[in-house]
Fold this protein.
Amino acid sequence: MINAHTAMSLKNKLLKSKLVKGIAGAFGLRLVYTGLTFLTSILLARVLGKTGFGTYTYAVVWAYLLSVPATMGFGNFIVREIAVYEAKSEWSLLRGIVAWSSKAVFGVAALISMVAIGIAWLVDGGEYSEPFVGFCLALLLMPALSLRNIRRGAMRGLHYVTKGLLPELLIDPLILITLTVVAFLVLSQRLTPLWVIGFYGVGTSVTLLIVSLFLRQVMPAAARAAQPKYQGKLWLSGALPFMLIDSLPIINAQTDVLMLGALQGVDAVGLYVPVSRGAQLITFILMAVSSTLSPTIASAYADNRLLDLQQTITKSVRLVAGVAFLFAATLIVCGPWYLGLFGPEFIQGQLALYILCISSFMSTSLGVAFVILNMTGHDGYTAKVGWGTTMLNVVLNAALIPAWGVEGAAVATSTSLVVGAVLCLVAVRKRLGIDATLMGFPAKPVDGDPLS
């Protein structure tokens, strides 16, 4: 009994050590990535102008959005499955899910790209305008974007969070910045959004190769030696709810951009993007923590270690809320200076920035509840909540953008984010008996499944 207890204590200490290191590494990368993203946005806004910047953003957002259904939910589903397979030493299934999901995702992504390009050609009336060509270039990147999501998810499931994020969060933006600066020095005013979309594609392709190499290096020797075992139908049925879930934050984050472009043109998109990027400063801490916390939640819940899980969640929520408040307060105070970095015309987005700062702090502070539900087998519920709030977001954007412009888009997105966060917070307490607030009330046993 003593040896078993000692072994369990060592296992818990090892998991906590990995969690701390993973959060620190992911936080650092997210911080660097956020800085590089702002630098890129400022650079492109200055080089391309408001209209060119809007054209580039509009095309890339469409590619990013469509990569979610192309990934079919495997980007996050594979995190949970690999964490469980590794804990149970089911090496054949671990190797099989990586290979099977990669092939399936590549085929679906290629099909969606071709269909989307065909639809865009019909809508464009057969004319090869700059927005249409930019859209096509961005859509050709979709298979690479989707495969990179799979590789990154596999790395997270194996607890190599920082290494899995490194290519996407550091190398990718550096490639885009470097190529854009060099091209501007050579081409000057001849640099167009199409060039920059091409540079974005180079970064995506290179980082896909790098993260694939990393995955080979960290794959357990037993998994590499095992004969792959496939459960395609079971995996697909399990991953599809994650596809719906993964779509939600992206749709909620990009609905305002896409609907602004449709209702008020690319100039409105160019004005709104710096505002949206400012709000992302507040939310990146949640992404950093959840990247590392996800496999830990799945493992602890599978082992029925709810008390340890409650302590870990409380510490994580307090960390997330503290950092989110710091960034939100700073942006509110320094809003005019921040927007002025992009150019004097961008300062008119100040009110929208304030709205998004407040709502982003609220939704980020409560956002760990969303991760908990996904990693404990309650992803079906989060899908229902998410799609409900997404429809709310679309309806509010359609109603408020024509009347209030960028401020209307900010109010619509803010409302949907806060409503979804509160619903998930309540569900975590009712379903699991876990408190995902700053208070950190003790976990309590739950009889049945009251929300099923």
In short: The radius of gyration is 22 Å. Residues 448-452 have pLDDT under 50 and may be disordered. Residues 325 and 361 are 6 Å apart (CA to CA).
